[in-house]
């Protein structure tokens, strides 16, 4: 994660012509759990996904960033479900 942030921050500082935002999503509702064939891994993922956010929550975060005025640069957004521990 740090590498993504560091590269993005470097890119942001190098150019005044672009805006750079790192969006870090928490556990998001996807079809991943239904595609896992290993029973132990599938059970772990199901437990991990007890608290999820809908994918459109991430889409709304992206829309928020895009809708900002040209002079505003949103550097980072962390979007997590309530109760996610990490």
Please give a quick description of this structure.
This protein is mainly alpha-helical. The chain has helices at 2-14, 39-48, 55-66; strands at 22-25, 76-79. 41% of the residues lie in helices and 9% in strands.
Description:
41% of the residues lie in helices and 9% in strands. The chain has three helices and two strands; from the N terminus they run H-E-H-H-E. With 86 residues, it is mostly helical.
What topology emerges from the helices and strands here?
Layout: H1 2-14, E1 22-25, H2 39-48, H3 55-66, E2 76-79
Parallel strand pairs: 1-2
In sequence order, what are the helices and strands, one letter per element? Answer: HEHHE
**Main β-sheet, spatial strand arrangement:** 1-2
N-C termini distance: 13 Å
- Quaternary structure of the protein: single chain
Instruction: Determine the strand fraction and express it as a percent band.
Output: 5-15%
Low-pLDDT segments, ≥5 res: none
Count of helical segments? 3
Mean pLDDT rating: 87
Largest sheet: 2 strands, parallel
């Amino acid at each position: 994660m740090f590498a993504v942030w560091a590269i993005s921050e470097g890119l942001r500082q190098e150019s005044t012509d672009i805006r750079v935002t790192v969006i870090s999503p928490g556990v998001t509702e996807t079809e991943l759990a239904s595609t896992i064939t290993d029973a132990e891994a599938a059970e772990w993922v199901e437990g991990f996904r007890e608290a999820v956010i809908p994918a459109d929550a991430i889409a709304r975060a992206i829309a928020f960033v895009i809708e900002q005025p040209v002079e505003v640069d949103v550097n980072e957004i962390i979007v997590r479900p309530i109760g996610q521990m990490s």
